[in-house]
Amino acid sequence: VQVVESGGGLVQAGGSLRLSCTASGSIFTADDMGWYRQAPGKQRDLVAVITRGGSTTYADSVKGRFTISRDNAKITVDLQMNSLKPEDTAVYYCNAVILSGSFWGQGTQVTVSS
Fold first, then answer.
1. Percentage of the chain surpassing pLDDT 70?
2. How many angstroms separate the CA atoms of 89 and 98, rounded?
3. Residue 49's closest CA among 93, 109, 100?
4. CA-to-CA separations, 92 to 55, 58, 108, in angstroms, rounded
5. Which of 9, 42, 93, 96 could bridge to 23 as Cys pair (CB 3.0-4.6 Å)?
6. Per-residue DSSP letter, 14
7. pLDDT for the residue numbered 69
8. ∠ CA(63), CA(66), CA(70), 5° rounding?
9. Is residue 31 predicted with pLDDT exceeding 90?
10. Contact 93, 35 (CB under 8 A)
11. What value, to the nearest 5°, has the Cα angle with vertex 19 and ends 50 and 75?
């Protein structure tokens, strides 16, 4: 199983970015799919997760600004990030929970300048 993220970059505070993630390999579906982030010197924290049925959970710090969505047929998950703040700066990792285990992408850098 491979998990690949895209869409990171540099943006000014108040701007928007959209992250995308695709899980591929000998799989037909995924259970929970989510986004996590890790800032320098800090632990990796949950940003948002979505179940196969579409139920979502968000970190308090991103509620109302970020939206997670998925396409079950394509096994993709996106994260729309609006009203970005400098404290959102981190490496963002995609996670896919599949029958055979939990799989991580390599991460994509998001930098928000003030």
1. 100
2. 28
3. 93
4. 21, 14, 5
5. 96
6. T
7. 98
8. 120
9. yes
10. yes
11. 50
